[in-house]
Design goal:
With 721 residues, the protein is mainly α. It has three domains: 202 residues, no CATH class; 97 residues; 363 residues, no CATH class. It contains 29 helices and five strands. Strand 1 and strand 2 form a beta hairpin. The radius of gyration is 39 Å and the shape is flat. This is WASH complex subunit 4. It comes from Ailuropoda melanoleuca (Giant panda). It holds the Pfam family WASH-4_N.
């Protein structure tokens, strides 16, 4: 057992992989042979004593029981390291098959090299080929039988030398044993025969008691019951996973609760309380496992309740976890480090979730509405406005960089050229911005220089817009989290339309001043929650209104060229997105991602600030992209039809790859179009700045006229928390 532990614990080295496999194979076979010889000794000895009706000495009984312990220890060793054993067995099987194939290959060459033709020689060669083909696959019982039959024919006519045949036979025997290692070890370590030799147990237990050092062996009496109870509770709680057949009519039913109705058992000068023992085991197990994985606290709590209901066990409450687990990254932490957050997390527009871009751990953190809602509940709703203020400060800095990029002479001159070009050719191009022009812009920007990481200026500009979009996505999530928190808090109020005034009720009853004060506070809280759950603050509108006037000023005329840079930006984004998604299937997943809707959100926000939705729509950019890719896809399909006649496989393979690439690009553009269309809804893309101003003016006039018609007073706007 120590030897096996030592070999299995040793780290496998690639340069000595074959040697490690041989060592593991030998130790597994040695363990099985020990189990076989011990089992045979026990069975033979006990059955001979019984058959000859001779009494067994106490020393013999103790020795045989010690052998039984050793047998179960070998079984436990294989069971304890079953994961490593299972992993090693598949590698050892392949290694043995490789050795056998090498031996057969040498013999086959010898048969082929002999020019004398005969039907018997042909049969031998066919048998060797059959053995080779059968060994190239999983080592099932049927395949091994076929190999054995094939080799019985293939070894005729001295195809193998004596020094070759014996190693091959040894390899095949090892292959048989290793392929069925688990079943064979289980069979040899099965001690059911002890039922017919029950008389030895009292002597064995006396010996265990007298030798106190071996008292630990007694635990095996109750451990099986503990594990059976735990297994039953787990399977009952996870019935939705359908882990096994729980139908009592098919698999039978065992009522383990009867064990707990037994009185404590007196064992020499000790009492063994089965109920207390199992309860302690379950308490300890559930507590330890909850501390390891706090997110499973609800499952173990349910298992505790089930243990009480089904078996009548009085379980101890673990009081874990001590706080909510659905908080994730704290709002306060994100707010203070908003610049780091927007660069390290990716936004998903549809699921309204943020996913960590990369991590040193084996998992990625996510942030969703529930996390934000729990965080708001911890800190209070006041944190929402503070978060918006921090985001405003962050956006100010980012828009300064945005303005600098747009003002750069290299960029500005190219954009002005593109605007002039589009105006000249739009009639010939059916008012669609040419795809080739966007590609040309991308290539031109790349010539200006790239960073050590291989990024062009346009790549960095795309990242800037994605970060602005991520900030807006975070604001959207804050608003949703606030509404979620308010609706959770107000859900216990029966009717939001008819909330009684507790202050008036307390006055009617003439209760104490403290009660009146408490009722006043309750009314205030209910009023706040009702208002907050009914309407959320329009943070998007606030962030549009605060930046839009500055963006639309004459001194920032260079920003008016933004709409014409969107096509090359989308092209750049799609290339980046495809590259990120392809990395998901690679072993090295650095830079892999499946979503980045911050870009669509950022483009929609900036277009709104510049009031350029109509200008961008006039480019009909996504129509142009769709037509371009559909045209190329049809051209490739036509070529495929032509080339299929010539049956040039390499050319057809190239065309299939081309078509696949075109399909992926078109799909990515359509996904971006859908995301951008969704993001535009948040910023009321249906209205221009002039129309919004007109609507605002009309509302103010209506308010004024309503105020004049009433008691001559104008109602003040409600203060929004």
């Amino acid at each position: 057992m120590m030897k096996m532990e030592s070999i299995l614990s040793k780290e496998q080295r690639m340069d000595k992989f074959a040697e490690d496999l041989t060592n593991r194979c030998n130790v597994f076979i040695q363990g099985f042979l020990y189990a076989y010889s011990i089992s045979t000794i026990i069975k033979t000895t006990m059955n001979l004593y019984m058959s000859m009706q001779k009494p067994m000495t106490k020393t013999s009984v103790k020795a045989l029981c010690r052998l039984v312990e050793l047998l179960k220890a070998i079984e436990h060793m294989f069971y304890r390291r079953s994961m490593v054993v299972a992993d090693s067995v598949s590698h050892i099987t392949q290694h043995l098959q490789h050795q056998a194939l090498n031996s057969i290959s040498v013999a086959k060459k010898r048969v082929i090299s002999d020019k004398k033709y005969s039907e018997q020689r042909l049969d031998v060669l066919s048998a060797l080929v059959l053995a080779e083909n059968t060994l190239n696959g999983p080592s099932t019982r049927q395949r091994r039988l076929i190999v054995s039959l094939a080799l019985s024919v293939g070894t005729q006519m001295k195809t193998f030398k004596d020094e070759e045949l014996f190693p091959l036979q040894v390899v095949m025997k090892k292959l048989d044993l290793i392929s069925e290692l688990r079943e064979r070890v289980q069979t040899q370590c099965d001690c059911c025969f002890l039922y017919w030799h029950r008389a030895v147990f009292p002597i064995y237990l006396d010996d265990v008691y007298e030798n106190a050092v071996d008292a630990a062996r007694l635990h095996h009496l109750l451990d099986k019951l503990c594990k059976e109870i735990e297994k039953d509770l787990r399977l009952s709680v996870h019935t939705h996973l359908k882990l096994d057949d729980r139908n009592p009519f098919k698999v039978g039913m065992k009522d383990l609760a009867l064990f707990f109705s037994l009185n404590p058992i007196r064992f020499f000068n000790r009492f063994i309380d089965i109920r207390a023992y199992v309860t302690h085991y379950l308490d300890k197990t559930f507590y330890n496992l909850t501390t390891v994985a706090l997110h499973d606290w609800a499952t173990y709590s349910e298992m505790r309740n089930l243990a009480t209901q089904r078996y009548g066990l009085v379980m101890t409450e673990a009081h874990l976890p001590s706080q909510t687990l659905e908080q994730g990254l704290d709002v306060l932490e994100i707010m203070r480090n908003i610049h780091i957050f927007v660069s390290r997390y990716l936004y998903n527009l549809n699921n309204q979730i943020f996913i960590e871009r990369t991590s040193n751990n084996k998992h990625l953190n996510t942030i969703n509405i529930r996390h934000i809602a729990n965080s708001i509940r911890t800190h209070g709703t006041g944190i929402m406005n503070t978060t918006v203020n921090f985001t405003y400060q962050f956006l100010k800095k980012k828009f300064y960089i945005f303005s600098q990029f747009m003002y750069d002479e290299h960029i500005k001159s190219r954009l002005i050229k593109d605007i002039r070009f589009f105006r000249e050719v739009k009639d010939q191009n059916d008012h669609k911005y040419p795809f080739e022009r966007a590609e040309k812009f991308n290539r031109g920007i790349r010539k200006l220089g790239i960073t050590p990481e291989g990024q062009s200026y346009l790549d960095q500009f795309r990242q800037l817009i994605s970060q602005i979009g991520n900030a807006m996505g975070y604001i959207r999530m804050i608003r949703s989290g606030g509404l979620h928190c308010s609706s959770n808090a107000i859900r216990f109020v029966p009717d939001l339309e008819d909330i009684v005034n507790f202050e008036e009720l307390v006055k009617e009853e003439g209760l104490a001043e403290e009660t009146l004060k408490a009722a006043r506070h309750l009314d205030s809280v209910l009023s706040d929650h009702t208002r907050n759950s009914a309407e959320g603050t329009e943070y998007f509108k606030m962030l549009v209104d605060v930046f839009a006037p500055e963006f639309r000023r004459p001194k920032n005329i260079h920003l008016r060229n933004f709409y014409i840079i969107v096509p090359p930006l989308t092209l750049n984004f799609v290339e980046h997105s495809i590259s990120c998604k392809e990395k998901l299937n690679k072993k090295n997943k650095i830079g892999a991602a499946f979503t980045d809707d911050g870009f669509a959100m950022g483009v929609a926000y900036i277009l709104k600030l510049l009031d350029q939705y109509q200008e961008f729509d006039s480019l009909h950019w996504f129509q142009s992209v769709r037509e371009k890719y559909l045209k190329e896809i049809r051209a490739v399909a036509k070529q495929q039809n032509v080339q299929s006649a010539s049956q040039d496989e390499k050319l057809l393979q190239t065309m299939n790859l081309t078509q696949k690439r075109l399909d992926v690009c078109l799909q990515e553009f359509e996904l971006l179009y859908f995301s951008l269309s969704s993001a535009r809804i948040f910023f009321r893309a249906d209205k221009t700045a002039a129309e919004e101003n007109q609507e605002k003016k009309e509302k103010e006039e209506t308010k004024t006229s309503n105020g004049d018609l009433s008691d001559g007073t104008v109602s003040a706007d409600p203060v929004v928390k």
